[in-house]
Amino acid sequence: MKTTIQRRMAEDERRRNTEQNTGKRHSRRGPLRWVVLIICLLLALLILSPLFLMVLNAFKTSQDYTQNGPLALPKELYFGGLINFWNATDFPVKFWNSLWISICSALLSVVLSLFNAYALGIGRIKGSSLVVALFMILTMLPGEGFVYPLFYMFNAVGMGNSQWTIVIICGIINMAFGTYLLSSVMGTFPKELLEAAQIDGAGRWRTLWSVVFPIMKSNCAVLFIFFFIWTWNEFYFTLIFLVSGDTQTIPLAIASLQGDRIMDVPTINAGSLVSLIPAFIFFLVFQRTLTKGITAGAVK
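Above: the chain's sequence. Below: its structure in token form.
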């Protein structure tokens, strides 16, 4: 009985000492935490300042912007810029083109990345390290470097003004990054699960969809979100390949508002704000999926 009481007293004493030491560490880290928090807030304000200026100038008249400058508050809420952008660019058509191209390109990139990573990370083909290095080099090459051969090649097959051209180009370029990322993750895939699938008689295709993909689903979802946003903001290739207005995307619609000598800044800011809303909503809808994918890594 005395031994039990003494043991409990010793445990209580250790617990109190631990809490005191933890409190001392927290008290020492207190000022440093506030400094880090203030620095993070200042950086966040700096990063969000262009967005704030865009919202501020989207609801100004051209006269108000010219007289008072971009930093002044609008004298009144003016929605003419939004209306002008909507009518001048045929926004519903441009929105559908951007949405369709972004979804198809992101799906193509994720599927190709999954197949390539499965062969490189789990299949262990010969020269897999060299292939991954080539994919990594492809991600670092600027798109301007191979726009001319792509332009002549797609024109030769009659796809010079096709949305499928942007889907294929962006899908292949983004696939290089997806392959590099997924292959590095699949290189550490648990061998026990693969051996169990082999014992059960699962082939390579069944192993991919029944064992590998359910575990890699969160990573693929993260890649899909990134690829969607990257393709949504794509400007250079769409400028080169999409000539007619019925095939163009929202970034081209915003660029079409800028002339050689005259630029309606409030209308351009209003168009940028409208074009940002769909991507922002898409990010909010899949925010939990993005968080799960980033923190994924443990096998249940």
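The mean pLDDT is 80.
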